[in-house]
Amino acid sequence: MNQHACLCGNETVREQAAQWFACTRDGALAANLQAQFEAWLAQHAQHQYEYELLDQLWGAADALPRGRLEALCQADPVRQLPRRRFIRQALAAGVAAAAVGLGWFGWQQHQLNYQDQLQTDLGERRQLELPDGSQLELNGRTQVKVDFSAGQRRIELSAGEVMFSVAHDTARPFVVSTDNGTVTVTGTRFDVRLDPARTRVVVEQGSVRVQGSGDSQALLSAGLGSQIDAQGKVATPYVVDAAALTAWRKGKLVFNDAPLSEVVEEVSRYRAQPLRVAAGNVAALRLSSTFSSDDTDALLRALPSILPVAIKTHADGSSEIISK
Description:
- This protein is α+β, with helices and mostly antiparallel strands.
- It folds into three domains: 109 residues, no CATH class; 128 residues, Jelly Rolls, CATH 2.60.120.1440; 73 residues, Phage tail protein beta-alpha-beta fold, CATH 3.55.50.30.
- It is 32% helix and 31% strand.
- The protein has eleven helices and 18 strands.
- Strands 1, 2, 3, 4, 5, 6, 7, 8, 9, 10, 11, 12 and 13 form a 13-stranded mixed beta sheet that branches. The chain has a three-stranded mixed beta sheet with strand order 15-18-17. Strands 14-16 form a two-stranded antiparallel sheet.
- β10 and β11 form a beta hairpin.
- The longest helix is centred in the N-terminal third of the chain and has 17 residues.
- The termini are far apart.
């Protein structure tokens, strides 16, 4: 195989792993490609995970009849290759098809049983794909634990906010848990945010079940939201602007007639130093505007020209919004 083909473009992680695997089995990589391969492995735990699955599959492939391998690969040119190189091409051409065709228990167990821990720093946003095809978008200061088993796909959100695009699988419900309760789906698109005293859920597509303590629960469909308070009580579903509430994915903060107290709470999530608002009439002032979550100082500079307020900076580096 031409080693230039090892370079990864817009393929999925699994496809990238297959390309790298095929290349490494063709012989020693050139120095520059070896460095790229090692950097790719170190980029994320899922890269190492997918590559090791292929290595195990490779060890079992010799036991298969050639005719069975040919059925797994649709590209005619590879059928005239020597057996071991043929297997490499079959893997690169269709890893998922090979796994299903083999019916290899070990492969399946690796796919079903998957654990990982993920986190982001202040101002960091991150996207990744899980082994089942589900996609996660993590907001800043987010911590999640992934635990997949044969009967359930479970995510524990201990801090921050995540947008979930869940691959449909009726046999394995997808459950997001926080200290306040759980959100359960089989396949949909929704956002979960953990605040100090509540868990907020917003559904963009499909439906979810929000479960608090005891019998407190709610069913949400697209365009609806709810929240679970610190006591585990689930709020009655209400209409939400899902696009505005998930604008953080594009680095935006969108406020529609929001009280300044809520604006400060939201903006504080994106600042290293605390931001406060004076109690009373100032906190009740309302704001409608869009700002960058990557530059909250710009919001503070603009605020006095929008509302009758001033910004006071304290010695500890924190800021306070006060009456002008």
